[in-house]
From TrEMBL:
Entry keyword set: Aspartyl protease, Disulfide bond, Glycoprotein, Hydrolase, Protease, Signal
Signal peptide region: 1-17
InterPro entries reported for this sequence: Aspartic_peptidase_A1 (IPR001461), Aspartic_peptidase_AS (IPR001969), PEPTIDASE_A1 (IPR033121), Peptidase_aspartic_dom_sf (IPR021109)
Entry annotation: catalytic residues: 109, 291
Disulfide-bond pairs as recorded: 122-127, 325-358
The protein, known as: Vacuolar protease A
Domain Peptidase A1 residue range list: 91-397
């Protein structure tokens, strides 16, 4: 068991959100963001390395040699955005706001729809430990001033809505509405390695009905196709990449198989069954949320308890379940049937190795809204994913690794 462990947030599940309700001009939306515990190995050197790995300071982004030796010819009409990988648990990228540009590390999160960063007016501990947006320093800032509030299990993020120029990769979105966080309670936000969240969900689940950046890209004709895709890497050196408006054929192997979206307004597909070893759990009216902002596998608590017991996982004082590392190779595979096709993970895929500790990725999650499971980075490292907004479907293929 490691001697130093810290809390940080494994973000997910904007998809669990119900439609926003207004209260006195403030929009409140409850998102089931769960705390996750891993060892805190980040320091100033990590931040320096991450900044060298992906930088928007010189535009356009030079994608030559990034990831899998990608070239612009392999991305037909797409705009690549390199990811930064912290311990296979937090994936984020750098974006800029304002004129001149102010830079922030943000999670590209398909489980939520709002974009926010800390404000210079925020006095929370988390804000002091992260980069903050200064509206007075931007000549393109436009005041909105309406209040927003987003509920997480770790506490509510609240602040005001503002508007400015957003740059991500080689894309520029003028007059993008976003949240300036004035309150970020709890240590989870403080220990996160990113500054804010850029939601890639639908506008129908957005607090204050703010149009998300991706929807603005589509509606303003910035993309050749209304899609974005993810290849999630497995190391700091090969952190992965998101592509807006296209697909890099070097990011996957074989064919892409598409599954229709199960619930309108959510990146969720039907989950037909789950196989664990020789045991098969047939499911009805159940979905799988494909969440780029979540690190683990979120499953019903009764199933999580059974699986963790079967693999010999024991709860630690941190709340995570751990297994003896020498037993990992003998543990059974798990497979999820999506659109009639099995997508399997080996024990090496679903057990996280963090500083000589082996952590089960099966995390209890029970939704009050719908019956669904959550497939996060543990799943996405193995399967390249296409989020097809235009056709209302999600595509899966074996991910190509560097």
């Amino acid at each position: 068991m490691p001697s130093s462990v810290s809390l940080f947030l494994a973000f997910f599940l904007g998809a669990v959100a119900q439609s926003a309700n207004g209260y006195g001009g403030v929009q409140r939306l409850k998102l089931q963001k769960m705390p996750m515990v891993l060892d805190d190995m980040a320091n100033d050197e990590f931040r320096s390395q991450a900044r060298e790995q992906v930088s928007l300071h010189e535009a356009p982004v030079d994608v030559e040699g990034c990831g899998l030796g990608m070239t612009s010819e392999r991305i037909q009409g797409g705009h690549p955005v390199p990811l930064i990988n912290f311990l296979n648990s937090q994936y984020f990228t750098e974006v800029s706001l304002g004129t001149p540009k102010q830079y922030f590390n943000v999670v590209l999160d398909t489980g939520s729809s709002n974009f926010w960063v800390p404000s210079t007016s925020c006095n929370s501990i988390a804000c002091y430990l992260h980069k903050k947006y200064d509206s007075t320093a931007s000549s393109t800032f436009k005041k909105n001033g309406s209040e927003f509030e987003i509920y997480y299990d770790s506490g509510a993020i609240s602040g005001i809505i503002s508007q400015d120029v957003l740059s991500i990769g080689d894309l520029t979105i003028n007059s993008q509405d976003f949240g300036e966080a004035l309150v970020e309670p709890g240590l989870g936000w403080a220990f996160s390695k990113f500054d804010g969240i850029l939601g890639l969900g639908f506008d129908t689940t957005s607090v204050n009905n703010i149009v998300p950046p991706f929807i603005n890209m589509v509606e303003r004709g910035l993309l050749d196709e209304p899609i974005f895709s993810f290849r999630v890497g497995s190391s700091e050196e090969d952190a992965g990449e998101a592509v807006f408006g296209g697909i890099d054929k070097g990011h996957y192997k074989g064919e892409i198989h598409y599954v229709p979206i199960r619930r309108s307004g959510h990146w969720e597909v039907g989950l037909d069954s789950v196989r664990f070893g020789d045991d098969v759990l047939e499911l009805e009216n159940t979905g799988a949320v494909i969440d780029t902002g979540y690190s683990l596998l979120g499953i019903p608590s009764d199933v999580a308890e059974l699986i963790n017991a079967q693999i010999g996982a024991q709860p630690s004082w941190t709340g995570q379940y751990t297994v003896e590392c020498d037993t990992v190779p003998s543990l059974p595979d798990i497979a999820f049937t999506l659109g009639g096709r099995e997508y399997s993970l080996t024990s090496e895929d679903y057990i996280l190795r963090v500083q000589q500790q082996c952590i089960s990725s099966f995390q209890s999650f029970d939704s009050e809204v719908e019956q669904f499971w959550v497939l996060g980075s543990v799943f996405l490292r193995k399967y390249f994913t296409v989020f097809d907004y235009g056709a209302g479907q999600i595509g899966f293929a074996i991910a190509a690794q560097a």
